[in-house]
């Protein structure tokens, strides 16, 4: 399944759980489409991947949909991650309520600065020298990188060699998996999601400004 | 231009500025492609939008590329944003060095909690009741939403009616622009980038786990 479908499944699951809490038992594709801003046809197509079909009169059974999506998204297993770089962004992420609410547990944070280390906090913050053994012992597969630019590549390489294969990268470096590098010979591939906040904001300015230009030209 | 091209232009610009600082004057499409993990052909195609062509021997002139991209990305104007919701994520973003380094200035933060208000700090934090007049007076066009789920929609509507048209949304609500709603009759459209951190992490788990499953099946 491609990334777009998987992201939508995550979003459907959230919505369905909210609807269930409110007391609903069934839902129509157009309700879900409205809430997510997509067409009902796309919702039905996505659900056909789950091999669940609704019926025109009653719609989809919410419990069945949730169970199927959980199975696909592996939500029945604990989702343990680590956060490397406990600056502002890293700490915000570690304490982000949204993660815990979604069953995602931050197993530990890692930092290079001795004053940040706190082994006994609710989410322990460990020194970077413990990164390799922690990942291996706990079999962590997914990690967040929130270190400064100058450290991003070396942290990434350390994490790959310890066994991390899924990366959410907030550093300004565009991390990528180089199949030809000897560094990566133990691993088939990695999944890297680079989120550069400055780039995302610049992108919004581009659209906002191009619309303003168009409007000015139209009114001349 | 579509979102993917605009995002890449932002990334080329960053790279080019770094190369310039190092002392380079020219660059080849394959160098930029390597750094970004895209093909040289795609780099050349992107640059053809800038109406700048390189030559096979010397490559592209870095200064020319930077100037053209700056013009397209409106980087010659100040990029002022506001951040609504000064919790962990909002505060991390306000203090994120990466933004200032890229010429993006947080004009103010807004929060509903009186204890968060600090009008005289470097980046002032104001009460939500000042949101409307601030946006209008300063003609702010781009805003970040980092409020809890229950407040996201009402904050979004307030920002739209004050004139914000570009949104970076970290709340777990999938915000969308409803053309048919009377609420939006003053505005042609909005650009909304929803970043749900829990969904992004779930997405990584999906890929990591599906690869593990494939490997287990292959070894059976």
Can you describe this structure?
2 copies of one chain form a homodimer. The radius of gyration of chain A is 21 Å and the shape is globular. The N and C termini of chain A lie far apart (48 Å). The first copy, chain A, has helices spanning 3-22, 29-36, 40-48, 62-72, 88-94, 97-101, 131-138, 149-162, 197-219; strands at residues 26-27, 60-61, 79-84, 104-111, 125-127, 142-145, 166-169, 191-194. In chain A, α7 packs parallel to α8. Chain A has 9 helices and 8 strands. Chain A is α/β, with parallel strands linked by helices and 220 residues long. In chain A, β6 (142-145), α8 and β7 (166-169) form a beta-alpha-beta unit. Chain A folds into 2 domains: 3-72, Arc Repressor Mutant, subunit A (Orthogonal Bundle); 79-199, NAD(P)-binding Rossmann-like Domain (Rossmann fold, 3-Layer(aba) Sandwich), CATH 3.40.50. The mean pLDDT of chain A is 88. Chain A has a 6-stranded parallel β-sheet, sandwiched between helices.
Order the strands across the largest sheet of chain A as they lie in space: 5-4-3-6-7-8
Helix content, binned percent of chain A? 40-55%
Mean pLDDT of chain A: 88
The chain pair forming the largest interface, with residue counts per chain, is: A-B, 61 and 61 residues
Major sheet description of chain A: 6 strands, parallel
CATH class identity of the largest domain in chain A: Alpha Beta
Gap between N and C termini of chain A: 48 Å
CATH superfamily of the largest domain in chain A: NAD(P)-binding Rossmann-like Domain
